[in-house]
Every structure is written in structure tokens, then in C-alpha cells.
What we know:
This protein is 72% helix and 0% strand. By secondary structure, it is an all-alpha fold. The protein has 4 domains: 1-69, lambda repressor-like DNA-binding domains (434 Repressor (Amino-terminal Domain)), CATH 1.10.260; 74-191, no CATH class; 193-302, no CATH class; 327-394, no CATH class. Helix 8 (108-123) packs antiparallel against helix 9 and helix 18 packs parallel to helix 21. The protein is globular. It starts with 8 loop residues before the first helix and ends with a helix.
Amino acid sequence: MPRHTSEHIGERIAHYRKLRRLTQRELASRAHISYSMLTKVEQGAKPATPAVIAAVARALFVQTADLTGQPYLTELRQDELDVLIQPIREALDLYDLGADPDVDPRPVDELHAAAEQLCALVRETRIKDAARALPGLMAEVTTAAHSYPSEKAWQVLASTYRTAYDITTKLGFSDLCVVALDRMAWAAERASDPILVGIRQYLRSILYLRSGQFDLGRRLVGVGMATLEQANVGPVRDVAVGQLHLGAAMLAARSGDGDTAAGHLSEAARLSEATGEAVRVHWLSFGPTNVAVHRVATLAEQYKYAEAVRVAEEVRISEDWPASRAAAHIAEVARAQLWIGRAEASLRSLQRARELAPQQMRYHPMVRETITGLVSAHRTTPGTLTGMAHWVGI
Length: 394
């Protein structure tokens, strides 16, 4: 039975723990986390880290979405985003139906420009605008690719599937994320594009990262690296390889292997020196800034919160860096700040993340958990925090 969205992750963990007839100590032992951490998370005193959520979900034999409460349907309905999901679902099912005789597609160059615009909207966190436009574009490009098959047409179709993945991920529809990536692989193979195939493996590894299946995630990174060896040598391949190293660093950090994580970060940093800030190359946002942001994230994943906050203070993010990535980084810092007792700084960080990416942050489980922890940390709840809590449905 789905739990109420106003509950925090700790309450959901306690609910499923009791269904399994486990004590807190027994669950902590099964999940290989500390008893102290589990009790704080269940109480809502501290935000659950993605690693803890994944470990507990495995131990309880549930999906991570069961613990995060995603998708947050009440808020989706309030924002009128729920009605945009079904058209995306239907458009994803058109892939093998051939050309639609009722659709007259634009030239492929125009379709490419439209697909790029949707990628830009997602990076600007204008999720609603992108979700509204995506199904029609997917249908149009599907017909174009079947009617006038070419490498570029299939590449554009793969791009629309990538956007479907981005949108459904941010809104918490994990089932559609998987479908979108399968469709992306289908189109990328027809485009004979090893770069797109490699990026798809990176995105798959991130799904396994979220579910705590680190070995499978690492295998996918390895397959992605091997695939990219078939691509032409140059900056585009370097960007894709660098992003795979960043994904591998997160997988290693979340599994507790700090040395391996550091090695992947070092290799990504080496590649970023050559590529520079390549934020629009397949919209991966790769470059020195992304490497620095991942360094903070890997420290946080290893529970080195004080060090993560210190390193974050040295990270400089330019105003033209994608708002979606900047906000996610700032939310990560807010969580670390709360863990080391800097509640006021954490609240300021969350406010900044909300300003940058309101639609994305409203549906981010880490933001909700951090707000829950902030409420628990305050004897009297300041008006700003009360507003934030109401905004995310707490």
C-alpha cells in the first residue's frame, strides 16, 4: 500500500521494518549501516542519504521509490504535471509502429533544433514546458525517422528519448525512466552512434546507483567505456568518457571505496583540462566544474560531511552553468551542512536551490528529507522553513 506523501523517508522505513518484524538493530545489521544513523533517520532528525535509502531498501526487499514516496502525486496534481505523463508514456510506445500517415514531419534539421531546445528547457529546469512539448515532438521525429531514415534522424529520436528519461527521472516515474532508456538504445543502434550508446550506458548506471546495485552499475560503466572506444577520437568522446568516470566515482563512493572513487575523479579531471566547460556536448555538463561538484558529492556519499562542506566552499559555479546541475549540487551541500549541525546555513542553501530550480527541487527526495531534518532541528519553526515545508508537501 502506498504511503502518504507527507510522511518522511524515516517513517516509511519504520513502517516497512515493522512489516518485516525487524528491530532497528536487526535492520541496521542487515543493511550494513550504523544503528545510530538508522534511529536518527527514522526519527526524521537527519536526512537519509541515497546510500542509506538504497541499502535499507535492499534489506527490506522493497523499491527505493517505496521509501522515497515517489512520484509525489499530490504535488504533481497541484502543478498540473500529472496530466503530462500519460502523453509521454503513449509517445514512447510509438517507436516500432512505423510512420504515422497523419503526421507531416518537418525537415530533420528543424527537428534537431527543436530537440535541442527541449534539452535546454530541462537544464533550465522548465520541466513543465519541456514535458508539454515532448510527446508531439517524439511522434513527429518517430515518423521522420521511419519515413526518411538517416543517421541524424535516428540521433534526434534518441535525443527525444533521452529527454523523456530526464523528465521522468526528475518527476519520480522510475518505470518510465527504464522504458525511455530502452528506446534510446533502440534509436542509437539505428544511428550507429557509439557515443549515444555509451551515454545510454552511463544513464543506466545512474539508475543502478540509485537502487544500490553497485556491481551492476560498475559493469555498465565498463561496457560504456568499451563502446566509446569505437567512437572517433576527439573532444566529444573525451566528454562522454569523462562523464562515465564521474558516474564510476559515485558508484565507488557509495559502495565505500574511496580510493577507487578518487582515481576516477582524477581521470575525469585530466580529461576536463582538455575539454574545458563542455556543458552543451550531449548536455552532459562535463568540465572542471562538474568534476569539482562530483568531488563534493563523493565525499558526502562517504559520510565525510565536514570535508564535503569545506571543499564545496571552494567550488565556483558560473551563472551560465545549467541551473539543474547547480541546484542539485547546492541541495547536496545543504544535506551535508545539516549533518554537521549548520542548520541555518542548510536552510539558506535550500532557499538558493529553490530559487535556481523550483520545479526540480520540489520533487527531489533529498530536499524533502533535509527540510524534514531542519524542522526536527528547530524548537520553533521559522516562517521561511514553514513555507519551504508546505511547498514540498510536508
